[in-house]
Amino acid sequence: AELLLLTLPAVRRMSPVPEELSLVPLHQHPELLEACAELLAEEWGKSRALRLHALQRSSDAFPTCLALLRAPAPAKPPCPCCLVGHVRLSRVAGQPSGLFVESVVVARALRGRGYGRQLMEATERYARTRGFRCLHLSTHDKQQFYAHLGFVPSEPVQIVPFLSPAMPAAALRAFAVPPSPTAAAPAVPAAPRLPLPPPGSGQSPQESPHRDTRGLPIFWMKKDI
């Protein structure tokens, strides 16, 4: 697969020297698998083996795991010590131009320096480069952060966790190629749509009509890119 590497603007806040960052597909850099698995396990638990298994399924056909890296030493390839953060992108059922953003995390030692914003902005650039025009996500407690990045409340969506040979051929074709303006919706059932509060109902980034399986509020958000 052709290497797709995005170079980001330098991070200046709280850093004595501007840094060059890049966003790379994890499946093109297997040397970063262990470090990403540790990063995810530190944040959300689960065994290292389970994390590695999920990360190893990253591909250009989605889901795609992306790693945010600091520039390595001159003439050196990316290395685990360069890892800043991680994000995973999956296709959205019934929305050929949409992607679902999940597993967004920045290394704990690097938080508070603007890397989270850099990670999300780089993810938007990557999605646009692949031909997508809308990002979806859900969160329990980071809705204010995403609102500052331009995300707005939305209805729940259903993600396609991976592309299986058992899926209908038409659905596989629809999900395996970048969308086009005339692309038809894939033959995958859309998620049940829960109604959003009517305009003027007072919904705020602190309130949500949706609950997860534990009964906790969950915020569904989207952004047109």
UniProtKB/TrEMBL annotation:
It comes from the Eukaryota. CDD domains: NAT_SF. GO terms for cellular component: cytoplasm. GO terms for molecular function: acetyl-CoA binding; N-acetyltransferase activity. Residues 21-170 form the N-acetyltransferase domain. Gene3D superfamilies: 3.40.630.30. Residues 186-216 are annotated as: Disordered. SUPFAM superfamilies: Acyl-CoA N-acyltransferases (Nat). This is N(alpha)-acetyltransferase 80, NatH catalytic subunit. It comes from Pavo cristatus (Indian peafowl).
